[in-house]
UniProtKB/TrEMBL annotation:
Subcellular localization(s) per the UniProt record: Cell outer membrane
InterPro entries: SusD-like_N, SusD_RagB_dom, TPR-like_helical_dom_sf
Domain named SusD-like N-terminal: residues: 63-209
Pfam families per UniProt: SusD-like_3 (PF14322), SusD_RagB (PF07980)
Keywords noted in UniProt: Cell outer membrane, Membrane, Signal
Major location category of this protein: membrane
Protein name: RagB/SusD family nutrient uptake outer membrane protein
Record's signal peptide: 1-18
Family classification: Belongs to the SusD family.
Domain RagB/SusD: residue ranges: 319-588
Length: 589
């Protein structure tokens, strides 16, 4: 008994000594209530803002193309593969933005609540400029996350109303009422436009040190060049700017004007065209389309020379660059020591016209089914590794034929192609995966490319004013598509007769614009969302090619099992269970 008492006393002393480990002291908890920041500590609220930046999803590299008619994967555990095969449910949704976006919005709401109470720097004038800038960034980022929420979760309710998502603009504490109903799609768009307007009013068009005080925008008052540079100088490149805000407005308006959502709001095609047109006008118009923008991911000298936060001509906004070989490891063919994960489909290959610009299905195109890759749109071999194409640092010829005798052939091993094609776009061909001589190369991920905005404009302008309608900025859908195809080397020898024919018909131009968007933005995360906002067929079977004895034969590879209501994504099932005020989109359970 005496021994037990001693042991008990020892345990009590041990527990008492561990009090600091079990119960955190009050002073160790950072108080996020208004006005509670230490007087000279701007690091915490700025860190909260950075959390919003860190949650921005990057469309490219996620490869949701695997759930469309553009690609399949040999990774049998891929979530998008399961979506395509009929396993998309409200509680199995790798495309959900609900948790990520609302977490970001909570952080941004904290910033917006407290931004004017923080002493950002000791100079009160510069501190006020910092407050303006950070308020603009937080408002613009909040709009961006509401755009992502609408893209993934807006839809038509059982009653036929076009609904958005709950609008949360205040910080939610532990006692908040989280049972918030979904706002209408129109109300969500108004919130997005309001936040973007605030951001546009507060932010500079671009960050950069100025030559003199004469270049200070009037909205910042009477300040010195040094004060301006401290708040808006080159050191802040990469953060949200007025130019980026205008581009986000273009993206949101295009979604709102599209067939899937147009009945639920007042945004018109003309609005969407004007918003994109403003971005392009500031860039320099159609003539400013970057000549090397087609291969932005592989322009080695340009990428190597990038200063921190600086953008090449093709890129409007990007993340930080890094040296790695992850994409190549995942997607090089097995003969180059890769895993061959993303396999473009025959469907996508067929979307590339002939070099003369005429679709391969059209009489007079010159297409030869026995020599299917000859005289094609040059973008085909740039973006897709076809049979007999080259890849890797030594320009190795790759045979994807079923009887080609290597693991690169159709369905030979688990890392072989399932379609007869491998991904080439986004990959640096100067990466070496040979275990004896591996190397990394610099990569970056764009948030917004100018080509996307050009295509946004072409689509909206054609719908608003027809192929030749110039709108307020003086260029037309036809002008944009002509520039894009010319850059690609399409139709240059015959005056692009297919485009010239299309300019006489809004419907034909629509088909051409959508096809150009499919090609130019392939594997960058657009196709999945484009098919849905257009309300077109989602269930086209993914096809490939089997080549034996040098004879190609088209094969069916994988069905696409989408029901009609899957034009719209679901509200997460767990949220529906927790909150009775939330209404699910029609068809989802």
């Amino acid at each position: 008994m005496k021994i037990n008492i001693v042991i008990l006393l020892a345990c009590l002393l041990l527990v008492a000594g561990c009090k600091d480990l079990l119960v955190p002291e009050t002073e160790n908890i950072r108080d996020l209530n208004p006005g509670k920041y230490p007087p000279n500590d701007a690091a915490l609220p700025f860190g909260i803002l950075l959390n919003g930046y860190n949650r921005i999803p990057t469309n490219s590299w996620s490869f949701n193309d695997v759930a469309t008619d553009d690609a399949v994967t040999n990774d049998q555990g891929n979530g998008f593969l399961k979506i395509a095969n009929g396993q998309w449910t409200a509680n199995n949704n790798p495309l959900s933005q609900w948790t990520n976006a609302y977490a970001a919005i909570q952080y941004l709401n904290i910033v917006l609540r407290d931004v004017d109470t923080v002493r950002w720097v000791s100079d009160p004038v510069v501190s006020k400029l910092f407050a303006m800038r950070i308020k603009g960034e937080a408002a613009g980022l909040r709009a961006l996350f509401y755009y992502y929420l609408l893209q993934a979760h807006a839809g038509v309710s059982e009653s036929g109303a076009v609904l958005g998502v709950p609008i949360i603009t205040a910080v939610q504490g532990p006692n908040a009422d989280f049972n918030t109903p979904r706002a209408t799609f129109e109300a969500c768009m108004k919130q997005i436009y309001s936040d973007l307007s605030i951001a546009d009013d507060l932010l500079p068009l671009d960050y950069g040190n100025i030559a003199s005080a004469a270049f200070i925008p009037a909205k910042y008052g009477t300040i010195t060049k040094e004060q301006y540079d401290r708040a808006f100088g080159s050191a802040f490149r990469g953060f949200l700017t007025g130019r980026i805000v205008k581009a986000i407005r273009s993206k949101a308006a295009l979604l709102a004007a599209s067939p899937a959502f147009s009945a639920g709001n007042t945004t018109t095609w003309a609005d969407a065209a004007d918003y994109a047109g403003e971005v392009l006008y500031l860039k320099g118009g159609v003539g400013a389309l970057a000549s090397n923008g087609l291969t932005w991911y592989a322009n080695a000298s340009e990428i190597a020379g990038l200063a921190d936060g600086a953008n090449p001509a093709e890129i409007l906004w990007r993340n930080n660059y890094g040296d790695n070989r992850d994409l190549e490891q995942a997607n090089y063919p097995p003969g180059l020591f890769g895993n061959g994960r993303i396999n473009p489909t025959q469907n996508l290959v067929d979307a590339f016209p002939m070099a003369n610009g005429i679709p391969i299905t059209h009489t007079g195109s010159g297409y030869d089914a026995t020599d299917p890759y000859a005289n094609r749109d040059p973008r085909l071999r740039v973006f897709i590794l076809v049979n007999g194409g080259t890849a890797g640092p030594n320009n190795t010829v790759i045979s994807t034929a079923a009887d080609g005798g290597t693991n690169d052939g159709l369905n030979i091993v688990g890392t072989s192609t399932r379609t007869g094609y491998y991904l080439r776009k986004l990959l640096r061909q100067d990466v070496n995966l040979n275990p004896n001589s591996t190397n990394n190369q610099r990569h970056y991920k764009p948030h917004i490319r100018y080509t996307e905005i050009f295509l946004n404009y072409a689509e909206a302008a054609n719908e608003a004013w027809g192929p030749l309608g110039a709108g307020r900025y003086g260029f037309s859908a036809y002008d944009v598509i002509r520039a894009i195809r010319k850059r690609a080397g399409v139709g240059t020898a015959n005056g692009d007769t297919w485009l010239e024919e299309a300019k006489g018909s809004k419907d034909q131009m629509r088909d051409l614009i959508r096809n150009e968007r499919r090609i130019e933005l392939c594997f960058e995360g657009f196709r999945f969302w484009d098919l849905r906002r257009w309300k077109v067929n989602l269930s086209e079977t993914a096809r490939g090619v089997s080549i034996k004895n040098n004879v190609p034969a088209v094969i069916n590879v994988e069905p696409r099992q989408f029901q009609s209501f899957m034009t719209y994504g679901p509200i997460p099932y767990g949220e529906i269970l927790k909150f009775g005020a939330l209404e699910q989109n029609k068809g989802w359970r």
